[in-house]
Amino acid sequence: xxxxxxxxxxxxxxxxxxxxxxxxxxxxxxxxxxxxxxxxxxxxxxxxxxxxxxxxxxxxxxxxxxxxxxxxxxxxxxxxxxxxxxxxxxxxxxxxxxxxxxxxxxxxxxxxxxxxxxxxxxxxxxxxxxxxxxxxxxxxxxxxxxxxxxxxxxxxxxxxxxxxx
Length: 165
Known about the structure:
Aminopeptidase; seven-stranded mixed sheet; alpha+beta
């Protein structure tokens, strides 16, 4: 069974393992060098009440996480948030992304966000399918904006307008 809960600092080593795997093996992040625990602590503390950071846990192990982040710094963007989801390699295809997405979107609505934006690297069909499942629509792409693994990568943007509750 997958349990979704707010992340705590003790979850950070497991979250770091998931993220560093993505750095080494996937284009899901444009970081090129593995992160240290200290670097991820800084990232961790940027989240909190207005920008939740959630983990997916199964049998006591962290198998994924997601977060909301500031979309842009200008005040007029305050009701827009950016979504990120990472799932451990061992848990792909087991409903972890769906479970995380359901809870983080509920939290986004509760926090009063109007729109949620996700940037997805071209070719990440699993992430695209997950976003479409929750009603996100394709709104455009930046072509060849990241260079990773010897190739230029496009970033596709998906957006969900949250219903007013």
